[in-house]
Design goal:
The structure is a homodimer of 163-residue chains. The first copy, chain A, is mostly helical. The first copy, chain A, is built from 6 helices and 3 strands; from the N terminus they run H-H-E-H-H-E-E-H-H. Chain A binds a DNA duplex (30 and 30 nucleotides) through helix 4.
Chain lengths: 163, 163
DNA sequence: CAGAAATAGTTGCGGGCGCACATTTTGTCT
DNA sequence: AGACAAAATGTGCGCCCGCAACTATTTCTG
C-alpha cells in the first residue's frame, strides 16, 4: 500500500498554497463580475496581445496555461465576438491565424486592470512583506518551472506600463 | 484612469503564484487520469469524509472551497453513484443530508493518495527547502485567510495517517 | 516532385459548473 | 398557535471546457 510520507511542513505549505489560490482567484472573479466586467480568462487573452501587438493562436496558447487548445479557440471566439480582438490571416503560413487587439480591446484592458490590481493589492500585497514577495517569487518560480526544459512558462500579468 | 501601481517584486510573485498553481494542478490531474483514477475534486470530497467520519452537505461545502454549493451537490451525486459515499438522513434536522464514506470510498482514497502525493513530492517538495516550506505556509496562510474573521478556511489534505 | 508525416486551428460531443429559483423544514415573533 | 423569515439542499438552464476527430497547409523524404 506504499505508505507515502510527506513531512508536515510541506503538507501545511501545500494546503496553504491551494487555499490561497482558491481564495484570491475567487475574489478576483467576484470583483470583476461586480464591476460588470468579463472573467479573468479574458484578461489572460487581452494582455498578451497588448504586450506583443500580434500573436498567433499557438503563441497565445503558450501564454495562457490554464486552458486547453480547443478551449482557447472558443474563448477567443467569444472575445472576438465582443469586438475586443480581431483574427487576421497570417502571412507566411496560411494555416495560422494572427490575433490583434482592437481599440475596444485595449479599452477593456484599461478597465479590467484596476479592478484586478485592486484585489491583488488587498489580498496579496497587503499581507506580504517586500522581502517575502521576493522569496515567494523565487520559491514558487521553481515550483512552476516547466519540468525538463521545454514547456514554456506562462501567464503574463503586465510588464510595460499599461498606458 | 487611476494608474494602479503594484511594485515589481509583488507582480513577479503573483505571476509565479498563478503559474505554480496551474502547473502543479495540471500534473496532479494528469497523474490521476493516467492511473485511471477520478479527478482531484473527488479526493476533496472523500478525504474530509474520512477525516470526519460523517458530514452534512454544508459542512463539506465549507471544506471544499473550489466549487459552488450546487456544484457540490452534483459532484456528490456522481461520487455516490460510484458507490464511494452514501447519503443518509440527518437526525436532528430533516432538511439536512449526512454523508458517510463507504468501504469502497476508503479504498479509493488509499489508491488516490499515493498518486497525488507522488506529484506533490516531485513538483513541490523536491524543489523547496524545509525552511522555505515553513515560510511558504506562513505567507500563503495569510493570503488565504478568509478576510473578516468568519469564512472558514478549507481544503484538507490528510492529517491523521491514512491507515 | 509525389506522397507521407507533421503542424495549426476548429468543431462535434458529452460532461461539469454556477446562477437563480423551487422545496422542505426550522426558528421566531406576536 | 399562526404566519413569516431564514436555512439546507436540490434542480432547470445555459455556458464553458476538454478530448478526440477533422480540415487545410506545410514540411520532410526518398
Amino acid at each position: 500500500m506504499a505508505r507515502v510520507e510527506i513531512p508536515e511542513p510541506y503538507l501545511t505549505a501545500w494546503r496553504a498554497f491551494l487555499n490561497a489560490h482558491a481564495a484570491t482567484t475567487e475574489h478576483v472573479e467576484a470583483a470583476l463580475a461586480a464591476a460588470d466586467l468579463p472573467p479573468l480568462a479574458w484578461y489572460d487573452v487581452l494582455w498578451p496581445l497588448y504586450d506583443a501587438r500580434r500573436l498567433r493562436m499557438g503563441e497565445l496558447a503558450t501564454r495562457v496555461v490554464t486552458i486547453s487548445r480547443s478551449g482557447l479557440t472558443r474563448l477567443v471566439d467569444r472575445v472576438e465576438a465582443a469586438g475586443l480582438v480581431r483574427r487576421e490571416a497570417c502571412d507566411h503560413d496560411r494555416r495560422g491565424t494572427d490575433l490583434v487587439l482592437t481599440a475596444a480591446g485595449k479599452a477593456m484592458l484599461r478597465r479590467m486592470w484596476p479592478v484586478y490590481a485592486r484585489v491583488i493589492e488587498e489580498r496579496f500585497v497587503a499581507v506580504i512583506g517586500r522581502r517575502e514577495a521576493e522569496e515567494l517569487a523565487d520559491t514558487l518560480g521553481r515550483v512552476g518551472a516547466r519540468a525538463p526544459a521545454a514547456e514554456p512558462t506562462a501567464s503574463s500579468v503586465r510588464r510595460p506600463a499599461l498606458q
